[in-house]
Specification:
Length: 222
Amino acid sequence: MKTGYVELGRAQQERWQTAYEQNPSLHGAEPSAAARWTAELFGAAGIDDVLELGAGQGRDALYLARQGFSVHATDFSEAALHQLRLDAQRDGLDDRVTAALHDVRDPLPPADATVGAVYANVLLNMAFSRAELRSLVNEIRRVLRPGGLFVYTVWSTEDRGYGKCSAIGDGLYAKDGFVGRFFDLDLVHELADRWELRGADGYTEDPHALWRVTQAKPHPVS
Ligand SMILES: C[S@@+](CC[C@H](N)C(=O)[O-])C[C@H]1O[C@@H](n2cnc3c(N)ncnc32)[C@H](O)[C@@H]1O
């Protein structure tokens, strides 16, 4: 399986691209429950800039921008980002939302310690190896300012799809051409190594059971 990850990633990118080309509102226009919760958290923490990874067509990026955040949204589907830019323009939010093509298996573009917060809704449970996940969270920690927050959501092993999709090895499952992983708390804790884990909360958003995880980049010890 490990040697197949490059091909798997490429196939998934095509799969997502096609899905977004076929549907200009694949995940709907309403923000996710996680985005609403995250806007409150980031606002209370005095954060004003958010890097969103796996932003799709931007339902959450646009919501966060409407709440006053400056959002840089990335995804590996150009079709999704095209829709995001159109919607941002339509809503007069293009001064607060930028969008760029980026595959999160590559290093993140921002310089060290320059980002206030990172947000990723239902991205980390996509077709990544555990090594790719560890390297992604290390990259996120690198770009965050000390004290900066990372909120992500992932499908949990409580999801009713867990065990029902076809297992393709290395903890990954496939359904309708999409590949993903279901997270247990051990994996959440593994990815919080060298972070301050602020919370791992289970919730449901039809039809999925998910974890919403909040972690902070620790301040350097003086
Ligand atoms: C379940 S969708 C969630 C989209 C968006 N966060 C939302 O909630 O509407 C997962 C997103 O992750 C993106 N994605 C998957 N693998 C990726 C990768 N390696 N790099 C960047 N984006 C990726 C897909 O294109 C898709 O937009």
